[in-house]
Here is the input.
Amino acid sequence: MRYVTQKGTKDILPSEIHNWQIAEQTFADVCHSFGYEEIRIPTFEQTDLFQRGVGDTTDVVTKEMYTFEDKGGRSITLRPEGTAGVVRSYIEKGMSSLPVPVRMFYNITAFRYEKMAKGRFREFHQFGLEAFGAKGPDIDAEIISVVDVFFRKMGLQNIALHINSIGCPNCRGEYTKLLKDYFRPHVASMCEDCQARFEKNPLRMIDCKVDGGKDIVKNAPRLIDYLCDDCKEHFEGLKARLEAIGISYTIDPNIVRGLDYYTRTVFEFVSENVGTQGTICGGGRYDGLVGTMEGPETPGIGFAMGVERLLLEAEAQGVLKEKPSYVKIYIASMSEAAKIEALKICYALRNAGIGCETDMAGRSFKAQMKYAGKQGIPYLAVIGDDELNSGEVKVKNMADGSETPVKLSGIGEFLAGN
Ligand code: ATP
Ligand code: MG
Here is the structure.
């Protein structure tokens, strides 16, 4: 039996992990600089958390969830996204008593049973954040700035910000009627999903992946033209803030986002590079969600970014980083006594935070040298009887071939200064 990775899953290998770690650290640093703190939520939750929290007319819930019964007969679902779990935690842990805004970020795996494509997996990773308790457009502009600053720190350019407002239940009620009247004569010719959406949530017909490009959808009335005064003011406020900060955007009336709980601001960061899956990051306001989940009515806003798509974009833009050399020095040994000394030196160097290696494979002296060269380790020290007697070793800089005599006990100090 030859075991292989399951469809839609992948190994992230040691040869590529450093770019993941850079992205993770950069995202955490940027979030911290805005006052967001990390939350870690469980990988699985009870199924109806997602049915309620994500919305049971969404593709995620109707088609894509990994749901199973556990040995105790509970219906369990692997998280398809992070917001529902964070909202559950916010309510369960009583975070509504904290000063607002309550800001949290996360770095999670997510699971969706989807057809594979470039940038589309069944197990994938998301960076995201949520901010609770602030209803004005300041926080909308803030979370968009987080993404903008993060992209900058990653060296990414030209990722277009698209924004829209999908209003509140007030303006949406009127608009939904209008939309239904508009679609009614066409609905029979639309896809099966749209026929169901027509009854349950006609707004979702706007971002249908099947009918989306067609004129019937393109010419549909646009919610942005029917916003109530409060929603209009909120959207104008967001635009003014983005302009003041200097973040450019385009208004895209067709973004309604896949998830049911969004209100007012919705946005996406879109690239041309990542195959057909161009949306790297999507987010928006969900003022109704905490209440819907039986928590105290609390405005909220957040986004989620696909890390695979982010790194594909970084690759396309040529900004992936070279793997760093964690091991700074190789201590080769020419005898058993020298080997023991090398082990002692390595132990001391590691305690001083300096990466080093010595032979673990019983290699000959020649093979040790070959190994160190192949690994690209920047410094080399060879310990034999002479070095043991004199207590001094030559540390060789492999890049320029220069050698510096250093005390056996002083290697760490020498390397720290180089
Ligand atoms: P799409 O329209 O591409 O299916 P979505 O609207 O389902 O995206 P969200 O639920 O908003 O996506 O998730 C936020 C981000 O997570 C997406 O913009 C994308 O970068 C990433 N993402 C979503 N689904 C996948 C997946 N199956 N594989 C990899 N990344 C994904
Ligand atoms: Mg999707």
